[in-house]
Amino acid sequence: MARFELKLPKMGESVAEATITNWLKEVGDKIEADEAVLEIATDKVDSEVPSEVSGILVEQLFGKDDLVQVGQTIAIIETEGDAPTAAIVEETTAPAEVAEIEKTIETAQETVAAPQDFSGSDKFFSPLVKNIAKEEGISIAELDSIQGSGKDGRVTKEDILKYIEDRKSGVVTPKVAEPAKTVEPVKVAEPVVQKSQQAVPVSVNGGDEIIEMDRMRKLISGYMVASVQTSAHVQSFIEVDVTNIVKWRDKVKAAFEKREGEKLTFTPIMMEAVAKALKDFPGMNISVDGDYIIKKKNINLGMAAALPNGNLIVPVIKNADQLNLVGMAKAVNDLGNRAKAGKLKPDDTQGGTYTVTNVGTFGSVFGTPIINQPQVGILALGAIRKVPAVIETPEGDFIGIRQKMFLSHSYDHRVVDGALGGSFVKRVAEYLEAFDVDRDF
């Protein structure tokens, strides 16, 4: 008999941890190679962890809802032969070590006043920093003492994680909030309105139904608030005549599906134009890190897609500028279908440099989408509509029926000015309006 350590596998760029959502196998169950043992959730997608060997599950090292780091051993499987195995941690942890750990936790809990109220600080803390502080039991006094490396001295995620690491290693001592000092009242000409970050109370009637947000909706909620607080959102809108595209698609979609085995929607045509425009305007294919701008080498297009539970997710088409229309259509359909089936992998949602969302799917003419951090732009595709339009010809102007849509471009005004943001979306429109109706697919 050999004992095999099942570890949390690497799941893609920047994915460092996952939460166990469900054990599919219990202790004592027989497991076949490549059979799923448990389900996990990252901050983007849910997936399964298969076993690399056949055997019996003899130990679960983590429980449901536990957070596990990539590379950590999560289960022990007993195999028949000499299965590859890493050194297994002894089950008996020294009692003195356990007592010391428990004492440290107890001391930290006593040191921090609960619950934390961050409204007493004049400093701005992002929702992410405040959530980490609450989870780690960091008081407002400690947060105020952290030297921030962000803009205007703001405390970043890296700052607070470094502080937590130093505190655990004893490099810094948790600062206890001092009792409030008595201050003489100051006369002011007008009443001072104090800032409050507390949520507005919601009245609930007897017939109202209260539903807790699911895990992904909570994450989406946090991301959206953090994005608005991080980026200075501004929008540019442009109307595009896509009559040639509609005619061309109607003409070739049956032959396209017969030859390629894929449906041809408008999305890959739009994505192709966006990828071309990003090559023309690399200033839109960037990220912001503090006071630094990172120019991305690859053009990786995110596309908002619906999940089975109704939530939205943004899978990424890698190196989109290198794909022809057939390749783009296959990538769009593959990611869209796997999103609907809940089969996306963590790596499918990583590395995006610019995002496109199709609000026209729901009948919206245009929208003002929120930037997908740490990107600096997102393009919303409006519904295609038949509208009366002025058509210019050598013989004069006349009114005709045209197929038109709006492009709504949200961009980060910290690093993208109106000239760049407007020129980019105008270039996308130019590519769409110049679409060759005689082209092959």
Please, could you describe this protein's structure?
The model is unreliable at 85-93, 108-115, 177-184 and 186-196 (pLDDT under 50). The protein has 9 helices and 19 strands. It has helices at residues 95-111, 127-136, 140-145, 157-169, 215-230, 243-260, 267-280, 325-340, 418-433; strands at 2-7, 17-23, 30-31, 36-41, 46-50, 55-60, 67-69, 73-79, 233-241, 286-289, 292-295, 301-303, 305-306, 312-313, 316-317, 354-357, 377-381, 385-393, 396-412. Strand 4 and strand 5 form a beta hairpin. Helix 2 runs parallel beside helix 4 (157-169), helix 7 (267-280) crosses helix 8 and helix 7 (267-280) crosses helix 9. The strands form 5 sheets. Strands 9, 12, 15, 16, 17, 18 and 19 form a 7-stranded mixed sheet that branches. It has 441 residues and is an alpha+beta fold.
In a nutshell, what does this entry contain?
The protein has 441 residues and is of the alpha+beta class.
- The count of strands amounts to 19
Largest sheet, in brief, is: 7 strands, mixed
Q: What is the first-to-last residue Cα distance?
A: 58 Å
The arrangement of helices and strands along the chain is EEEEEEEEHHHHHEHHEEEEEEHEEEEH
Beta-strand content estimate: 15-25%
Computed over alpha carbons, the radius of gyration is 27 Å
Would you identify the regions where 5 or more consecutive residues have pLDDT less than 50? 85-93, 108-115, 177-184, 186-196
**Total DSSP helices:** 9
Oligomeric state, counting identical vs distinct chains: single chain
List keywords for this structure.
441 residues, alpha+beta, 7-stranded mixed beta sheet, 4-stranded antiparallel beta sheet, 19 strands, 29% helix, globular
